[in-house]
């Protein structure tokens, strides 16, 4: 991670994904420690904020007000002027918030000092709070989940439990589904068996060390060599495991190099340091030797389990990640009997633990991961250590918003990774101003804080607990406001310690961005509640915090709608001014600098603009879905998208809409040239070029035609239905189900029968 080791794991090119031109081949990730910004960077950052506000103010004075004051204007022009000013103001506001957050990030990077490993090990020698790692999964590839669970299992943490929350239907009948599900279920046992050999070795070595007389100088010196040998053995074992990894893509390379080999390198270095200390005749304290032995035991010792909520009729089966998490969190700390009912198995709490069929341990902290997340080795130790400090007792969530894997084989995955890495920086600035939002995955949560925001309801006689809100598909954002209302803080840790995959194609990107755009407006009223509650408590929300929170929740709506207006409405040429461009320039320059800092290209700022152009319909659709949900109170359903040749098919409207953007931009260009409106013509020409470039680069001409064909042909088919005349005759009466009678009783004057119960399932 520090750039010293650029050795890559061997790649099996026969199974590697085909690489597009214009991508990157460098798989070495960014340093997990942010460099301290220079004085020049800080000065420019502050100057950019000042210039953005100044040029916007000058535009309002010299263009808008002057046009309205100089002479009588038509009603239409006045409305047009105010509309244009509103669009420009909203877009400038979002640019300004970016610059402010960026300045906060610089302050955070300047003040951050990495905690030495010795302090971490000393702390956990006496404080060993438990942590439960929850990995929600639905229809994920087994190998993807394996890397996530193994990266969690290899955390250098004393008391850890890793649980895969498998949300697939456990009663599937298709052979391929059953086979994949069984393979996934076995992951926990396989990983535990894999680590059992090293864990047993080091556990036994620790027991032997307990009987060593360290007061004897010769014995103490020999103990140094013995533990050095264990560290060398552990390093060799991890290297051997990395050599066995199947390397199909850049994520596999990252896992082998940065998780397995980097941990091996670190352990080998410790062993060499111990040998060097022995050669110099130095004395290593008994406490330090204890810590080093425990470190090996912690790395390879972990409790793993798989939990399936859909096996139990007493748990919520709502199809979303939030309720998958909530179902398990609600069971933590309890003992349960499994009771068979006509509706399925239910979990009945019991105070007699010896009679329990299932005991789910409680923990002080919870770590939530996406199924495709990968953690570096000291993620848990550093973040829990942070939470354990006295001045952080009011922190509910500490997280490292994930970074992207480098070496993406597709252009769209590379550019998605660029925006992800930029957001990692911005989130640090949000923390500096106290405006952090929980981003869902890769977050360590104080369980006590979740108990403060839990909502309970009774459904069918069973208590359903909601710790994480599930009203929207951005459940983490709403829960952030809930935590803030209860006086809790959220923090982004200023190091890159977690990684996650970015969408590899346009179809999967649509699913992600539509989800991101859905929900922000829905939970906006909670922000006003937060403002009121904080003011009443004498702790008002600062202007900068308010600006950042408002922009985070609503900017997708106003930025995309504003851009649509700029693209499609023929504004009067008198409203145009170079001052608008000058107000936006500091934002684009700053983002280009940030892209270069993250090892991308300055020119990627133009690619990102075109990228966002073709995503306009996706973001607007997500915004409208949010408004629809607000009006109907109906939750957005989970949607699956068909695949073709390992590529996610893009829905027909989202394939056609980028083509319409190109067509309309060309029409606008022609119309403005004819009318001599050269400012609008230049803007239309740039949009035409940027959108065509984005379509060719990030969707692909071949994929467009294929997705249009699939979308059109799907419209020609309807789901087959079976008429009553085609159904077989009913020869037997439904069998009387006595179990259902005893369990359900009479319902609406009818008695349940076996056929009815079976049909209901």
Give me a quick take on this structure:
It contains 25 helices and 17 strands.
Could you walk me through the main structural features you see in this protein, from its secondary elements to its overall organization?
- The radius of gyration is 29 Å and the shape is globular.
- Among the domains are: 508-714, no CATH class; 732-760, no CATH class.
- By secondary structure, it is an alpha/beta fold.
- Helix content is 57%, strand content 10%.
- The relative contact order is 0.11.
- The strands form five sheets. Strands 3-2-1-7-11-9-14 form a seven-stranded mixed beta sheet, sandwiched between helices. The protein has a three-stranded antiparallel beta sheet with strand order 5-4-6.
- It has 25 helices and 17 strands.
- Mean pLDDT is 85; it is low at 1-15, 638-645, 722-731 and 753-761.
Structural class: alpha/beta
Alpha carbon gyration radius: 29 Å
Residue fraction in strands: 5-15%
Sheet with most strands: 7 strands, mixed
Distance between the termini: 51 Å
Strand order of the largest sheet: 3-2-1-7-11-9-14
Helical segment count: 25
- Oligomeric organization of the protein chains: single chain
Shape: globular
> Strand tally, please?
17
List low-confidence stretches: 1-15, 638-645, 722-731, 753-761
Mean pLDDT: 85
Classify the helix fraction into a percent range.
55-70%
Quickly list its features.
761 residues; disordered N terminus; alpha/beta; disordered C terminus; 3-stranded antiparallel sheet
């Amino acid at each position: 991670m520090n750039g010293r080791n650029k050795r890559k794991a061997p790649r099996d090119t026969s199974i590697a994904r085909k690489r597009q031109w214009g991508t990157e081949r460098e798989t070495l990730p960014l340093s997990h420690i942010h460099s301290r910004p220079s004085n020049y960077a800080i000065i420019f950052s502050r100057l950019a904020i000042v210039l953005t506000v100044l040029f916007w103010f000058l535009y309002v004075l010299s263009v808008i007000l002057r046009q309205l004051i100089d002479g009588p204007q038509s009603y239409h022009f006045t409305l047009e002027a105010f509309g244009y000013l509103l669009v420009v103001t909203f877009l400038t506001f979002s640019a300004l918030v970016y610059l402010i957050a960026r300045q906060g990030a610089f302050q955070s990077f300047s003040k951050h000092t990495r905690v030495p490993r010795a302090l971490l090990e000393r702390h956990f020698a006496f404080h060993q709070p438990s942590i439960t790692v929850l990995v929600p999964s639905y229809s994920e590839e087994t190998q993807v989940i394996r890397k996530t669970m193994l990266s969690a299992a290899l955390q250098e943490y004393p008391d850890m439990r890793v649980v895969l929350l498998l949300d697939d239907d456990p009663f599937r009948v298709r052979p391929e589904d059953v086979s994949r599900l069984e393979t996934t279920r076995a992951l926990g046992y396989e990983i535990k068996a894999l680590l059992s050999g090293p864990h047993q070795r080091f556990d036994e070595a620790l027991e032997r060390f307990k009987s060593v007389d360290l007061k004897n100088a010769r014995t103490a010196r020999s103990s140094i060599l013995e533990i050095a040998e264990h560290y060398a053995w552990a390093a060799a074992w991890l290297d051997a495991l990395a050599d066995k990894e199947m390397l199909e893509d850049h994520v596999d390379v990252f896992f082998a190099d940065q998780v397995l080999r980097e941990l091996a390198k670190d352990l080998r270095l410790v062993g060499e340091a111990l040998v060097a200390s022995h050669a110099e005749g130095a004395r290593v304290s008994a406490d330090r030797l204890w810590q080093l032995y425990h470190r090996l035991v912690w790395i390879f010792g972990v409790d793993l389990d798989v939990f399936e909520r859909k096996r139990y009729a007493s748990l919520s089966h709502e199809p979303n990640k939030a309720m998958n998490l909530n179902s398990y969190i609600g069971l933590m700390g309890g003992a349960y009997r499994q009771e068979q009912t006509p509706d399925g198995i239910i979990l009945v709490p019991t105070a007699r633990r010896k009679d329990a069929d299932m005991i789910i341990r409680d923990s002080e902290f919870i770590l939530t991961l996406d199924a495709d997340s990968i953690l570096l080795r000291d993620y848990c130790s550093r973040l829990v250590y942070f939470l354990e400090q006295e001045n952080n007792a009011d922190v509910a969530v500490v997280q490292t918003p994930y970074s992207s894997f480098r070496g993406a084989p597709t252009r769209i995955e590379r550019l998605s990774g660029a925006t992800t890495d930029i957001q990692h920086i911005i989130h640090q600035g949000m923390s500096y101003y106290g405006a952090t939002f929980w981003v869902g995955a890769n977050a360590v949560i104080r369980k006590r804080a979740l108990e403060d925001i839990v909502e309970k309801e009774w459904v069918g006689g069973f208590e359903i607990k909601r710790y994480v809100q599930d009203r929207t598909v951005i459940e983490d954002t709403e829960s952030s406001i809930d935590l803030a209302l209860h006086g809790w803080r959220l923090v982004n840790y200023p190091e890159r310690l977690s990684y996650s995959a970015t969408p590899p194609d346009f179809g999967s990107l649509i699913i992600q961005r539509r989800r991101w755009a859905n929900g922000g407006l829905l939970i906006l009223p909670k922000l006003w509640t937060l403002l009121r509650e904080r003011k009443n408590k004498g702790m008002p929300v600062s202007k900068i915090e308010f600006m950042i929170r408002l922009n985070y929740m609503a900017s997708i709506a106003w930025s995309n709608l504003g851009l649509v207006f700029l693209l499609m409405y023929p504004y009067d040429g008198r409203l145009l001014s170079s001052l608008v461009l000058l107000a936006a320039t500091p934002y684009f320059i700053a983002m280009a600098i940030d892209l270069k800092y993250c090892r991308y290209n300055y020119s990627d700022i133009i690619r990102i603009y075109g990228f966002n152009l073709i995503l306009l319909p996706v973001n607007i659709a997500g915004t409208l879905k949010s408004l629809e949900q607000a009006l109907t109170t109906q939750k957005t359903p989970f949607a699956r998208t068909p695949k073709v040749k390992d590529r996610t098919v893009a829905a027909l409207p989202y394939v056609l809409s980028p083509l319409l953007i190109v067509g309309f931009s060309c029409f606008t260009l022609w119309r403005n040239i004819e009318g001599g409106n050269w400012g609008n013509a230049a803007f239309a020409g740039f949009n035409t070029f940027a959108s065509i470039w984005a379509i060719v680069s990030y969707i692909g001409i071949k994929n467009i035609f294929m997705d249009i064909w699939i979308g059109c042909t799907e419209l020609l088919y309807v789901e087959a239905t079976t008429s009553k005349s085609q159904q077989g005759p009913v020869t037997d009466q439904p069998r009387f189900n006595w179990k259902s009678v005893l369990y359900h009783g009479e319902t609406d004057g009818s008695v349940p029968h076996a056929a009815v119960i079976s049909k209901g399932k």
